């Protein structure tokens, strides 16, 4: 699809396609990315994302739309943030146990992820629109990013997954020293402490999910563009094992994971790695005007050896196909893989209007009470697309084993 074709279909109208439904959400922005899905009261569904002219620019803000239960159209988008000197990215919507809705998001100057701050604000509903309150910096280390949902620990503590850019003095962020962690709040978000995942260099976008044995597993995007990684917790998220590779390739792009009612794990991602592709770009923000004259952070030491705490990030591997991967062994292996949508996946540019970007990326997945799935993802950087998979369609996918090459 060309950008103008996508734009013409950004109506929010839910269209049936066999056992699935799809919609392309409305947005006033020409670039839309990093969808986040969250259930609301009454079965309604919220989708938040960031939009503006180009990722990293200061006109990037958070938007959100609602699909009321039983409705056939997503609501017009509401703008929930507008910090004029920062790029506001990666929204996370969380409904606390007391019913209060919160929005968390990152905010950074330009492409400097190592200067990112994490903010939270109250969200209220006005019909089918979301409205935001004042933002508060929650006091996490400089260079902290978020992406995955908050989970509530057995003692009521909130657990917000993080990745930390670990800034290097005088050097520009490249992702070479990113690590995973959890921010923990025992007072409903008033204060936070940080628990680090051991030996997690390059493992980011930590997504914890419950396992059917009472433990937890977490899954990670990889800066090294090799494999989706996995770690475990046997104490409800208080401590975590070192991330280890699964059998699903990863392209240094986001993944979404959830636990189905029977304990099956469902992951939506782009199962392709650097070993399968020759596509490369310098960095995530190589199209932004060069206003930062610091040299790039390198993972090697003075002798050219990779530092123990560093990695070599790989950018530019195709972000397609978009696939649903299913695991019956707690996420150690994903034996069923189904292509949801495909394209060239080209992502050597973040530009959303010249047609060269064709990524299907940054998916978010939620199980539905009826046994189906809701999935939202980036469509060529131009729009956010929502797909609803019916219980029957999911059952058909689960009955089909992986085909070679998918």
What's the short story on this structure?
This is Sialidase domain-containing protein. The protein has 406 residues and is mainly beta.
Supply database-style keywords.
single chain; 406 residues; mainly beta; Neuraminidase; five-stranded antiparallel sheet; 2 helices; globular
Textual characterization of the structure:
Residues 227-238 have a biased composition (Basic and acidic residues). Residues 239-252 have a biased composition (Polar residues). It comes from Pacificibacter marinus. Residues 227-252, 289-309 are annotated as: Disordered. Residues 43-375 form the Sialidase domain. This protein is mainly beta. It has one domain: Neuraminidase (6 Propeller). Helices cover 3% and strands 39% of the residues. It is built from 2 helices and 27 strands. The protein has helices at 3-8, 391-398; strands at 15-17, 20-24, 31-39, 45-52, 61-67, 78-79, 87-95, 101-108, 117-126, 129-132, 136-137, 144-145, 151-152, 158-164, 179-185, 193-196, 203-210, 216-222, 227-233, 244-249, 256-259, 265-269, 322-327, 336-341, 360-367, 373-379, 383-389. The protein has a 5-stranded antiparallel β-sheet with strand order 1-2-27-26-25. Strands 7, 8, 9, 10 and 11 form a 5-stranded antiparallel β-sheet that branches. Strands 12, 13, 14, 15 and 16 form a 5-stranded antiparallel β-sheet that branches. A hairpin with a 3-residue loop joins strand 26 and strand 27 (383-389). The longest helix is centred in the C-terminal third of the chain and has 8 residues, at 391-398. The radius of gyration is 20 Å and the shape is globular. The mean pLDDT is 94.
């Amino acid at each position: 699809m060309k950008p103008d074709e996508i734009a013409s279909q950004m109506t929010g109208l839910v269209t049936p396609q066999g056992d699935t439904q799809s919609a392309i959400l409305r947005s006033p922005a020409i670039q839309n990315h990093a969808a986040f899905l969250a259930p609301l009261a009454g079965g309604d569904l919220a989708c938040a994302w960031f939009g503006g002219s180009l990722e990293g620019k200061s006109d990037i803000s958070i938007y959100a739309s609602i699909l009321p239960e039983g409705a056939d159209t997503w609501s017009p988008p509401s703008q929930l943030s507008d910090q004029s000197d920062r790029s506001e990215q990666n929204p996370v919507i969380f409904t606390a146990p007391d019913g209060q809705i919160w929005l968390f998001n990152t905010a950074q100057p330009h492409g400097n992820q190592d200067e990112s701050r994490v903010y939270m604000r109250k969200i209220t509903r006005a019909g089918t629109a979301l409205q935001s309150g004042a933002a508060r910096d929650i006091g996490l280390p400089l260079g902290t990013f978020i992406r995955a949902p908050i989970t509530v620990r057995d003692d009521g503590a909130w657990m917000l997954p993080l990745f930390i850019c670990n800034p290097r003095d005088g050097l520009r962020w490249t992702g070479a020293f990113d690590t995973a962690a959890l921010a923990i709040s025992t007072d409903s978000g008033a204060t936070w402490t940080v628990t680090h995942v051991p030996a997690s260099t390059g493992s980011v976008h930590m997504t914890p999910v419950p396992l059917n044995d009472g433990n937890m597993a977490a899954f990670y995007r990889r800066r090294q563009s090799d494999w989706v990684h996995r770690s475990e917790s046997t104490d409800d998220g208080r401590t975590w094992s070192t991330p280890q590779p699964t059998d699903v390739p990863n392209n240094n792009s986001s993944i979404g994971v959830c636990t189905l009612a029977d304990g099956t794990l469902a992951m939506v991602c782009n199962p392709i790695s650097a070993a399968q592709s020759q596509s490369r770009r310098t960095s995530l923000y190589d199209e932004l005007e060069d206003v930062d004259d610091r040299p790039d952070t390198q993972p090697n030491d003075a002798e050219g050896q990779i530092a123990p705490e560093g990695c070599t990030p790989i950018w530019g591997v195709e972000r397609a196909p978009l696939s649903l991967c299913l695991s019956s062994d707690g996420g150690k292996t994903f034996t069923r893989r189904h292509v949801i949508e495909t394209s060239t996946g080209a992502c050597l540019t973040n530009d959303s209007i010249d047609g060269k970007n064709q990524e299907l990326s940054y998916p978010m997945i939620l199980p539905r009470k009826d046994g189906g799935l809701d999935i939202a993802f980036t469509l060529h950087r131009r729009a956010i697309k929502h797909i609803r998979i019916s219980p029957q369609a999911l059952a058909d996918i689960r009955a089909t084993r992986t085909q070679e090459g998918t």
